[in-house]
Amino acid sequence: MKVLVVDDESYVLEEIIGYLKAYDPSFVIRGFNNPSEALALCESDPPDLAFLDIELSSGNGIELAHALLALNPDLKIAFVTAYNNFASEAFEAHAIDYLLKPMRVERLHQTLKKMLDELKRGRVSGNRDSKEELSIRIFGELRMNFGPSTIAFKRKKSAELFSFLLIHRGMPQHKDLLIEALYPDMTYPRAVTHLQTAVYSMRKSLGGLPEKKVGIHYANEAYALEIHPDYFDLEAFESVVKAPDSRLLKIYKGRVFQQESWFWALPMQEKFEGRFILALDEIIRFSYERRDTEVFTEAVWRARPLLIEEEERFAEYREMVRAYLGARTETKWMRFSEES
Q1: What is the mean pLDDT of residues 89-95?
Q2: Which terminus of the chain, N or C, has fewer Cβ atoms within 10 Å?
Q3: Could you write out the DSSP letters of every residue in 95-135?
Q4: Whole-model pTM?
């Protein structure tokens, strides 16, 4: 087990190292006063655990934590500081615990046990069958599964944050942009705290996924989501909509994030609904001409709620329903349209 300790006060550094050796003499412990030196070594040999001071004379422990997480996303971090006003920033950096100086050996050992337990859980989940697939669906509602397991977000804002980053996957999103999108009516200092809480909660929810499937990166005050699903309905939509067929009816389950009232998602909802309506029109006409009853019936019923303000197209579809499926079905279709 490799452990990194960074503190610019040498006596504190030696104290922490002593406590760690007392807990497990087999630990390979590296201590540094300078964060740049610590990071340089970790680039070639990243640690499993890290105890970091926050306010360093030649750097910042939270920035160091983000850099270390980029090297090893499974790294377990605890902050050791004389100040109690950095808690939110610490947990944003995926910290397991936040220790105040002066500390008791019992308190540090308690934190160390939590870190080891978290590391063990992560390794167990990382050893899951590599054949298990990650699937993500956003049409209708956000649904994410890894194998038979559902990935759930405990906080609604962490789900919204994940969704925003998912739409912009691979592209860094500055924290101010995220605050503008997720917390438009909140004061900036309060919004920063809430964003940090959402980031921490999101990381926890995604913690059981293999590193090769998902990663959250932080640099230059911006977050980026790297995610590699085996199935993503948005990608499937983009693939099928170019030459639409009946598969699109299975993919499009409703507006993007339809169950949520996220204002930033509204333009996207309208965009994809418009593209679906155009593609659906092609499917209806093609299946009508080919006399594909099953596809035509499903498509024309799916179209009805989307035609509220399109009287001309509604009348044309009505004639097609009457001609192909009969007056009785037309009556049911009309009744459904009145209820929609």
Answers
A1: 55
A2: C
A3: EEEEEESS--HHHHHHHHHHHHHHHHHHHHHHTS-TTPPEE
A4: 0.66
